Amino acid sequence: MDLSRIIFLSLRCFSFFMLHIAHGDQTYSFPEEMKRGSVIGNIAKDLGLQKGALSTRRARIDTEESDKRYCDINLGNGELIVAERIDREGLCGKKASCILRQELVLEDPLELHRISLHVQDINDNSPVFKGVKIGLEIQESADRGARFVVEEAHDAD
């Protein structure tokens, strides 16, 4: 292979990689069950983008793990908003951490920004006991401040 061909192929590979620029993660934490339209954060401000850059660069949110869209972006002001109410237990089960991975895609030039959404648990489930009634026999001679074992309650949280 001659030198000009090698240089041509090297430049072509270099330009291909330059077209796809990925930046670091933006991380947001918010409680589950937020209403649709609630603000998670301002992605434009956090990325240092000029006003109007999101709409002129046709910004959009892409999901990595599912087709369901949990957040969206307001192109006018750059706010990241809840697109669909999120039930943490339904989404992540009993896992200690619940993270949704999204990508902000900007065009002309192409930029990708990863977004990690940490969904925090709220206590939105009532405890349930096995039986309807709990019976305790406490003798009159029981010490003041005595403790008694009660059956454990369970809830989805």
Folded structure, characterized:
Helix content is 20%, strand content 28%. It has helices at residues 3-19, 43-47, 53-56, 88-92; strands at residues 21-31, 39-42, 60-63, 71-73, 79-82, 99-106, 111-120. The longest helix is centred in the N-terminal third of the chain and has 17 residues, at 3-19. Residues 11-20 have low confidence and may be disordered.
The N- to C-terminal Cα distance equals: 65 Å
Strand order of the largest sheet: 1-7-6-3
Beta percentage is 25-35%
Number of E-type strands: 7
Major sheet characteristics: 4 strands, mixed
Low-confidence stretches: 11-20
The sequence of SSEs as H and E is: HEEHHEEEHEE
> Structural class of the secondary elements?
alpha+beta
Helical segment tally? Answer: 4
Shape: elongated
Quick check: average pLDDT?
A: 81
The rounded Rg comes to: 26 Å
Task: Give the proportion of residues in helices.
Answer: 10-25%
Task: Summarize the helices and strands and which ones pair or pack.
Elements: H1 3-19, E1 21-31, E2 39-42, H2 43-47, H3 53-56, E3 60-63, E4 71-73, E5 79-82, H4 88-92, E6 99-106, E7 111-120
Parallel strand pairs: 1-7
Antiparallel strand pairs: 2-5, 3-6, 4-5, 6-7
Structure described in brief:
The chain has 157 residues and is an alpha+beta fold.
